[in-house]
Amino acid sequence: MAQPKIIVLGNEKGGTGKSTVSMHLVVSYLASGHKVGSIDVDARQGTLTRYLENRSKTIASSGKALPMPKHRSLHTSKNTDHGQAEKEDYALVAETLQALEDCDVIIADTPGNNTSLSEALHTRADTLITPINDSFIDLDMLVRVEGEAHEILRPSVYAEMVWEQRKKRALRDRGSIDWIVLRNRLTMINAHNKGEVGRVLQALSKRIGFRLGEGFCERVIFKELFLSGLTVLDLEQMGTPLKISHIAARQELKTLVTMIHSEEKKPSPSS
Ligand SMILES: Nc1ncnc2c1ncn2[C@@H]1O[C@H](COP(=O)(O)OP(=O)(O)OP(=O)(O)O)[C@@H](O)[C@H]1O
Ligand SMILES: [Mg+2]
Known about the structure:
The protein is 42% helix and 16% strand. By secondary structure, it is an alpha/beta fold. It has a single domain (5-264), classed as Rossmann fold (3-Layer(aba) Sandwich). A seven-stranded parallel sheet has the order 3-2-4-1-5-8-9, sandwiched between helices. Strands 6-7 form a two-stranded antiparallel sheet. The longest helix is centred in the last third of the chain and has 19 residues, at 244-262. Bound molecules: adenosine-5'-triphosphate and magnesium ion. Adenosine-5'-triphosphate (ATP) binds next to helix 1. Adenosine-5'-triphosphate is lined by residues 14-20, 42, 45, 47, 111-112, 184-185, 216, 218-219, 222-223.
């Protein structure tokens, strides 16, 4: 049986859209008929878990047969021995992935800080997606940029962590982690700054090895359906008419899913 594709949403900065993109990817894959596993590695905050609980309530109250993923919420080990806690966290991730191995795709939402659970998921990722907001503050999460000329100084702690996980992954099963950086909450405001961030990201993508996604705009539809557990992809089934902005939001999601799979068609360097 084919292994599920593991897609991890990660960065080490809060509030950039990891949970939002996770939920929308979960529903995108469900909508295209895939069997989906979802993992909330951020059980303390539990955004993805609550999103899905809200969805279950909507299914119960509306009677609509909306598709649901097979969901797991992970709590970090409370063992006071640091080394032991780390081992337990790695074991929990391995067990969880095994429990979801009948899925076509697994989407994991990780917290905005470094934990061993999050690291364990990063090292198992086939695709890592890092949403960032379009500013130099968020860019700092990937790389140190300085001065008027926005000179790139060195990779950040997170970029180094991804590098480490890529090495571990290559050693373990010769697999590779396809890293996609996705600009999120794009607006028309501050167009110059946006251009500059884009320029630095382009330069950076070659240097630290990620692909730059087209990104998601700032859209009400990406946030307003949390309490009902729905997404823009569920509107027709719920009998809600589509607006132009909804179609644009769907297109952004479709572009991301196409990008996730575009690497698969390329021959590997050794073949
Ligand atoms: N494209 C978007 N358009 C509008 N609102 C958005 C968009 N993406 C995210 N948001 C909103 O931004 C906020 C932060 O998003 P989210 O919770 O997904 O971030 P996160 O990276 O998971 O945060 P944390 O690190 O705290 O887990 C939420 O209120 C969410 O609704
Ligand atoms: Mg989150």
